[in-house]
Specification:
It comes from Autumnicola lenta. This protein is an all-alpha fold. Helix content is 84%, strand content 0%. It has two helices and no strands.
Length: 55
C-alpha cells in the first residue's frame, strides 16, 4: 500500500509538471490534460495490479 501511495504521488507530480500553465489555446490544454490524466490512471492501475500480485 505504501508503494502504491508513493507511486501515485510521484505520478501526480510528474503529470502536474507536464500540464503546467502554457500559452496554448484552451481546448488544446484541456485535451492534453485529459490525455495526461488517462495515462496516469493507466499507470496507477498497473501499479495497483502489481501490488495486488505481490500480496
Amino acid at each position: 500500500m505504501k508503494k502504491l501511495f508513493l507511486l501515485f504521488a510521484l505520478l501526480f507530480s510528474v503529470s502536474t509538471s507536464f500540464v503546467s500553465c502554457r500559452d496554448t489555446p484552451e481546448e488544446e490544454r484541456a485535451e492534453e490534460a485529459a490525455e495526461a490524466v488517462e495515462e496516469r490512471a493507466d499507470e496507477i492501475e498497473e501499479a495497483a495490479d502489481e501490488v495486488e500480485d505481490e500480496y
